[in-house]
Amino acid sequence: MFGILKFQTFLLVVLLFICSCTYLHGVFPAWLDRNKNGPLGTFWRAARIGERLSPYVSLCCIAMAVSLLIS
Prior knowledge:
Number of strands: 0
Mean pLDDT: 88
């Protein structure tokens, strides 16, 4: 019930959010680019993080997958 309160689960949710937003920006770039401000700007910001820091996000995803397989 309180899975989101665990740090590992929180990191997993953040990584999935960043990866999903980056994918959506690649598929529908106009939708995210016109919503840069306001609450929907969070999706645009996450897509920017995923695009600019993609090697680090990829390494974090691999590290998260390994840690989930081990535990």
